[in-house]
Amino acid sequence: MRFTRKEAALNQINLAIRxxxxxxxxxxxTILFMASSIVPLSVSSSSINGTADSSxxxx
Length: 59
What we know:
The chain is mainly alpha-helical.
């Protein structure tokens, strides 16, 4: 299965949110940190305009 870097990061962010809601704060923080290493979590004009890195990663 192949994902773009953005899709992989969004999947990890969604998992981190679910873990936080379940009270798994350490796990959520770890997953969120991993997502930020794939795609920086700051909003930039390039990500808003859709020109951010869309390299493909394998899962």
